[in-house]
Amino acid sequence: MAAYFDGSTSYGYEAGLLPSTALPFTLSCWIKPDSTTGSDRGLVRLGSLASAAANRECARLYLQSTGRLAFQIANNSGVNNAFGGTVNGGQWNHCLGLYPQLNLKLAYLNGTPGSPNTGIRALPTDTTNLAIGASVYNSLGTIDEYFAGAIAHVAIWDEALSTGEIVALALGSADPKTIRPNALRYYNPLVTPINAPSETVVDHAWSSWNQAKYPYINGDPGSQSFVNIARTSDNPHIVLRHPLRQETKIAFEPAAQNNSPIFYHQRQQQGMAS
């Protein structure tokens, strides 16, 4: 399962997500856009509700009108964008924004970084509100830049992930819960809605994780709302593992026809005396 956003009314929102973002941090998600081109489309946005525009007082991943991935840091004095590659329409793409230090921002598409942005841009003081699949700002009075397509496995870390960790996420060979679990600030697989009353989920809480260890429902520590989001059986086929269980050995197989990676895993065989 994954969450499907209709491009005109669908969005996810969580208020008061704590703690407030500070350097360094990482934003990550899987997306399957219906189309490559269109208007700018929000994917994951951490930002203030007091801002007057979508590209102010926020840190966000979004798609430009051309389908190019962008990672943006913005405050009321200006914006800095780091750009990645162009996403594939109708296919699963892994998108990640990395902010390891004040003068470095990187956008990774499917594990490959784009050109770094080295401009200095301090984070806004308030980035405690999370939006998924759209830009939500101005005290929820304005919602725009709707995304059309599927989104899964939204994750936020309070640390800068390594190149190896980013590649593992992009290949689907790593469960976000097993990547630096003590630094995982927020994780929502968007895989299974809890007690969904129908195919379209309205103001409905999806299962989420806080600090990777404790699942929570209905927005603990914030208030979670998902509006007009449908379920789709498609997903990016990542390996899901419990962070405390024994690791499994991963063997990568060629992509399936829907271009999402499929992984076959087997338990590590214990050596036996001959």
Provide a short characterization of the protein structure.
The protein is mainly beta and 274 residues long.
Please name the defining characteristics of this protein.
about 270 residues; Jelly Rolls; disordered C terminus
Range of helix content:
under 10%
Class by helix and strand content?
mainly beta
% residues in beta strands? 35-45%
The CATH class turns out to be: Mainly Beta
Walk me through the structure.
By secondary structure, the chain is mainly beta. The protein has a single domain (2-236), classed as Jelly Rolls. Helices cover 3% and strands 42% of the residues. It has 1 helix and 22 strands. It has one helix at residues 163-171; strands spanning 2-6, 11-15, 25-33, 41-47, 58-63, 68-75, 78-86, 93-101, 104-109, 112-113, 129-132, 135-137, 142-144, 148-157, 184-188, 200-201, 208-210, 214-216, 223-227, 229-232, 249-252, 263-266. The strands form 5 sheets. Strands 1, 3, 8, 9, 10, 14, 15, 16 and 20 form a 9-stranded antiparallel β-sheet that branches. A hairpin with a 3-residue loop joins strand 17 and strand 18. It is globular and about 40 Å long. The termini are far apart. Mean pLDDT is 78; it is low at 216-221 and 243-274.
